[in-house]
Specification:
56% of the residues lie in helices and 15% in strands. The chain is built from 8 helices and 9 strands. It is elongated, with a radius of gyration of 41 Å.
Amino acid sequence: MLKRIVSFILESIFPIAIVIIAIVISLTPKIGNFSFNTDTIVISLFSLLAIDSILDKYKTKKRIVDKTDDIDIKVETIENKVIDISKRVNTIESAEILKKRSDFERLEHIFMNVKENLFVSGINLEGIVPSCSIIKELANNGVHIRLLMLDPEGEKLFASSEMSGVSNNERKKKIIANLDFLKQEFHQEIQSSQIELRIIDDVLPLSFIGIDLNTKKGRLIVQNYLYKTPSSKSLMLEFTEQQLYWYNLYIEQLELIWSNGH
């Protein structure tokens, strides 16, 4: 309120006072023995104009400072909003990438959306056994399918079982059973190379589901195997070309694992 009053005085009253003083002086009044002449009038007017000029510069500077302060406040507000939006975007992106197993649709629903190629790797491929009819249909429709699982006779099987905290004998039996079943179920498709089935002698840190990789609609689901932790509790990641660096990196891992299978 005080600032407004001072501003009003400087902007309105003082210029009026200059005009009034100039008119009074122009009448050559006399105060005691002192009378105003032309020289004193001119000097007085120039003095008043100088004061007015100084005050005008002060007012201009004050307006600039006030506007600058206002701009700084607005910039700070915008920066805070940008930071807040950035945090929200990061939160959304993390939620889209980092998932639990229960966050995904059932495998048969995932497989139904495959158009060109499918890659599935895992310890024993237990998850795809119920979806064999869908996979067979995909192969018959021209989809190229690659399947990879652990070698039940491999030297690394025991280390893999130890890491997972499961019985080595039970794991071996499950792998053999599923491997024999898949070979029999996809016999014709394997013969025609529409389905490729490989085993690998290694400790797999990850499993993959790759859907239409290297296409614009490619989707890669990665499951991490944790130490002595059930796979149902493991962290799962989902990548598309929107996370291009990680998408390409994990595809390289997928291809590396595949190339070391037989």
